[in-house]
Design a protein that fits this description.
479 residues, alpha/beta, Rossmann fold, five-stranded parallel β-sheet, two-stranded antiparallel ribbon, 15 helices
């Protein structure tokens, strides 16, 4: 931590490493944002819109907004480890929090100002308020990163790190921390059975010299390779390290399995999971389920209610057979469900085993139009209402293809950890339709797994937007 003279010492000696009291900075930052929200709101109401509203109403409403922002950011840990997060991660978290904050803001203002302002004035105020607020947040983040970069270039705002072990995974972490200064770590050195010539870090000695590590590296972090020490040595070192405020971290040796390893608790015991699955969290899955239900309900009521009779008539006029093509598909957890689509082909025996190809003679004229515009997928909103599918997720495959693809791609079934979707990350990234070559299938699975491991509500909105955009402009793989 910085002492009373810490800032003076830092200015007089730029090479001196400093540590910030992060919880204190976090509280101050959030408090300042609350004040800024109030001032910003007053400015928008009084100066820009010239609306005559009582000061008490303004301050109470905007204070509630500030508290709302603090609550949401605290819930999503938006300010945790802010000094050591990558800028892309910070901006992603900020935009995610802003979406939720915008929803809450609309509710607050509609409830508190409806007796004071006209509906048009309320909507105009909300729009201006949120526009200025997100502009302020982005500007403040840019200023923060500039200050952080300036400090780190001079050796400030860093965390000292000591490494214990010499495994390949640990060496990779050492090199990354040593070369990428934006991470905010200062690599003090490493303990190992012998010096590693390929590693440009200070060799601190053998494992036997660890007993003196506490005195030498007080208030540092120690990253330990799990293969370096036995259980008794790890326990003894951790007990000693904590007496010198050294935080111990452990690096698993199976990073090749997956680099999104996360810690979870089973009762009081910590366990490592090789994949990060945001939708395992109850709050995240609830948000997705509510959105899926609400969105699909609106589509069914306002679009499918009149579209189905029109499409059904056109299908029946061109060819004999059912209006809907109902097929068994692979769902979440490998379960089987009946997937609905508008029938786009003449009835044929190969429908459950053979993918559609370019110029496929089985496709009808109205079917070609439905496929080109992706309107044939709209009945799957019924599957979403039934809870069998989601709006966004990996596309469900025919059962025969699931069995076939599982045999050639080891990670294929990972995409079934979550509900299949009407659209997905792979589809908006150009990997939809027929898969003639193995690399196409591999890319599709790769994108599906990326979605499973990195889900967030903003990503769903982005994929939905890109899906609609692709429908409007047309896709070459839609046939």
């Amino acid at each position: 931590m910085i002492g009373r003279n810490g800032f003076i010492n830092c200015l007089s000696n730029p090479d001196k490493m400093i540590h910030l009291d992060l919880p204190f900075v976090k509280r101050i930052t959030k408090f300042v944002i609350v004040l800024d929200v109030i001032v910003l709101g007053v400015y928008l109401l009084v100066k820009m819109m010239s609306i005559n509203v009582g000061l008490q109403v303004i301050l109470s409403t905007l204070l509630l907004q500030g508290i709302t922002w603090c609550g949401i950011t605290d819930y999503f840990n938006c300010y945790n480890n802010l000094f050591f997060k990558e800028s892309t991660v910070v901006f992603s978290d900020t935009l995610k929090v802003f979406v939720y904050y915008s929803i809450c803001s609309c509710c607050v203002y509609l409830c508190t100002l409806f007796n004071v302002l006209l509906p048009r004035e309320i909507l105009l105020f909300i729009f201006n308020y949120l526009l200025f607020f997100i502009s302020y947040i982005i500007l403040s983040r840019l200023c923060f990163f500039s200050v952080r970069k300036y400090c780190r270039e001079r050796g400030g705002i860093v965390q000292h790190v000591v490494f214990i072990g010499g495994s390949d995974s640990l060496q990779e972490v050492m090199r990354q921390m040593n070369e990428e200064r934006y991470l905010g770590y200062h690599c003090v050195g490493y303990y190992h059975t012998h010096e590693l010539e390929s590693l440009p870090l200070t060799y601190l000695g053998d494992y036997r010299q660890l007993e003196a590590a506490g005195d030498a590296h007080a208030q540092s972090e120690a990253i330990i390779s799990l293969s370096a020490l036995n259980v008794d040595e790890v326990k003894r070192f951790c007990e000693r390290a904590e007496n010198f405020l050294i935080r111990t971290r452990f690096l698993p040796e199976f990073l090749s399995v997956g680099k999104s390893v996360v810690m979870r608790n089973i009762g009081s015991f910590p366990v490592l999971s090789v994949r990060n699955e945001p939708l395992e969290k109850e709050g995240s899955s609830l948000i997705k389920d509510i959105f899926d239900f609400a969105f699909s309900f609106l589509v069914c009521v306002f679009i499918l209610s009149w579209l189905i009779p029109i499409v059904a008539l056109l299908i029946k006029l061109e060819s004999r057979g059912p209006v809907f093509f109902v097929q068994d598909r692979s769902g979440r957890g490998g379960t089987v469900f009946k997937c609905f689509k508008f029938r786009t082909m003449r009835v044929n025996a190969a429908a459950d085993s053979q993918q559609a190809t370019r110029g496929d003679a089985r496709i009808t004229k109205i079917g070609a139009f439905l496929r080109k515009t992706s309107l044939d997928e709209l009945p799957q909103f019924i599957n979403v209402l039934k809870g069998e599918m989601s709006i966004v997720g990996p596309r469900p495959h025919m059962l025969s293809h699931t069995k076939k693809f599982t045999e050639v791609i080891s990670t294929f079934m990972v995409r079934h950890y979550i509900k299949p979707g009407i659209t997905g990350l792979a589809q908006v990234s150009g990997f939809r339709g027929e898969t003639n070559e193995m690399w196409q299938l591999e890319k599709r699975v790769e994108h599906d797994i990326t979605y499973v491991e990195n889900w967030n509500f903003l990503l769903d909105l982005k994929i939905i937007f890109l899906t609609v955009w692709n429908m409007v402009r047309g896709e070459k793989n839609a046939y």
